Amino acid sequence: MIDESFHLTPLDVRRYDFGRAFRGYNPARVDQFRDQVAEEMERLTRINQDLDSKARSFHEQLRAFRERDKALNDALIAAQQLRGEVREQAEREAQLILREAQAEGERIIEAAKSDVRRMEEELDNLDRSRRTYLSQMRTLIARQLSEVEASDSQVVASTLRGAGSNSSASNRE
């Protein structure tokens, strides 16, 4: 943990006055050491500032990546939900189309059966009409034949009577 109450800067190191004492340290060497310490502190401070700047940048990038990740996850969830809804809708529409097609097929089959029944009735009626017509024609032809035969018989009989009268008249002459 960093102690916030004590901050030593390179400038503080350069300006610090050790004071003079009898038989103390060599002032030139102390000043030289103090300059070296200050330069090292300046270098470390720059490095620390660069690292803090990079850390802030990385934290910002991390935050942006997390936001993108969250947005992507939200989009993925929405897409999955939409896919599920679309699939359900498609299944409902397919079932509806299938039911409509089955109903239409049944309607067409019933119409075809009705047409077949109607045509069979027409065919039966036509067959009955044909048989009735043929029966009437047979009756008419039989009657006509009877009349022709009767007429033939009368012509033959009248011819025979006429020939018999002529022969009797010829015989009489």
Task: Describe, in plain words, how this protein is organized in 3D.
The protein has helices spanning 10-15, 27-172. It has 173 residues and is mainly alpha-helical. The protein has two helices and no strands. The protein starts with 9 loop residues before the first helix and ends with a helix. The radius of gyration is 66 Å and the shape is rod-shaped. It has one domain. The model has no long low-confidence stretch (mean pLDDT 87).
Quick description:
This protein is mainly alpha-helical and 173 residues long.
Notable characteristics:
173 residues, 2 helices, mainly alpha
How are the SSEs placed, and which strands pair?
Layout: H1 10-15, H2 27-172
Helix content: over 70%
Tell me the number of strands: 0
Give the amount of beta strand, in percent: under 5%
**For the terminal residues, how far apart are their CA atoms?**
181 Å
Oligomer: single chain
User: How many alpha or pi helices?
Assistant: 2
Main sheet?
A: none
Question: How many whole angstroms does the radius of gyration measure?
Answer: 66 Å
Mean pLDDT: 87
Structural category is mainly alpha
Tell me, briefly, the overall form. rod-shaped
Report low-confidence residues grouped into runs of 5 or more. none
Secondary-structure element order, as H and E? HH
